[in-house]
Specification:
Blueprint lengths: L18 H4 L9 E6 L14 H12 L1 H7 L3 E11 L8 E11 L3 E12 L5 E14 L13
Antiparallel strand pairs: 1-3, 2-5, 3-4, 4-5
The structure holds coenzyme A (COA).
């Protein structure tokens, strides 16, 4: 009777699963990370999910990062062109806000912001939860629009 087959002695040990590789969606590398934050129990709504108004405030803050650099001074949010809550945010989700410039005008900058949640660390998932387009205007001391500085 032949001897039972066993692994050759030089077989490498199995590679432990890399949770980031196994995630169905990974965090983007072609946009800029402008904010990372974890919501608190105080940010819950009556359904037990994270309050949409809190998410909107974070998106407004995150969206302002790149326009502030371009404007090199004060800016104000003039318009939320689009805002989509794709999936509910839960307590324990780690939120990452990624931004890219959509349009640079004479006095305004429009930014596209995407929010990803990393959830369930034991079996990590990365989920896009929110997407928005917001326009910021460079303003002077009187709060009036001012031309963006040359880049
Ligand atoms: C932001 C503000 C100074 C702009 O003044 P305004 O006289 O309305 O601005 P203008 O019509 O001259 O437009 C300025 C720029 O904003 C853009 N803009 C104005 N309204 C817009 C809208 N609804 N959507 C997208 N862009 C808009 C214009 O296209 C223009 O951009 P460009 O110069 O790059 O072409 C003024 O509207 C304001 O003070 N709003 C209140 C801001 C605020 O309190 N935000 C919340 C807290 S930050």
């Amino acid at each position: 009777m032949p001897a039972p087959e066993s692994a050759p002695p030089d077989t490498p040990p199995p590679v432990p699963a890399d949770p980031l590789r196994m995630a169905p969606l990974t965090l983007p590398g072609d946009r800029e990370l402008v904010l990372r934050v974890m919501p608190l129990p105080a940010d819950l709504n009556a359904n037990g999910d994270i309050f949409g108004g809190w998410i909107m405030a974070q998106v407004d803050l995150a969206g302002a990062v790149l326009p502030s650099r371009i404007a090199r001074g004060r800016i104000a949010t003039v318009a939320v062109n689009q805002f989509v809550f794709k999936q509910a945010v839960s307590l324990g989700d780690l939120l990452s806000f990624y931004a890219r410039i959509q349009r640079v005008g004479k006095t305004s900058v429009t930014v596209h912001v995407e929010v990803f949640a990393e959830r369930n660390p034991a079996d990590l998932q990365v989920v896009k939860v929110t997407e928005a387009s917001i326009t910021y205007v460079a303003i002077d001391r009187e709060g009036k629009p001012r031309p963006l500085p040359a880049r």
